[in-house]
Design goal:
The chain has about 80 residues and is mainly alpha-helical. It is about 100% helix and about 0% strand. The longest helix is centred in the middle third of the chain and has 81 residues. The model has no long low-confidence stretch (mean pLDDT about 95).
């Protein structure tokens, strides 16, 4: 009777250890997948930031060129008015 009880306990322990191992493996796979997704999203964020910076730089350059053009024109008009 004791041997049968020990045998059943051993079987139960082995089953629990197998379930725990399966669950641990699933969790590790999920963590690995989430890390990969996080790395992918980080890369997308960096690419998006570079695109936004490029657009802002283009807009800024355009505004600065316009400002210099306007200042040059105003300076020219002022010189005409002065002389």
């Amino acid at each position: 009777m004791k041997d049968q009880l020990k045998s059943q306990q051993s079987v139960a322990v082995v089953e629990l250890e197998c379930q725990l191992a399966d669950m641990s493996q699933r969790l590790l796979l999920e963590v690995t997948a989430l890390q990969a997704k996080l790395a992918e999203m980080h890369e997308e964020k960096l690419n998006s930031e570079m695109i936004v910076r490029a657009h802002l730089k283009g807009d800024y350059d355009k505004l600065v060129r316009g400002m210099f053009s306007t200042v040059f024109q105003l300076n020219h008009r002022f010189d005409e008015f002065r002389y």
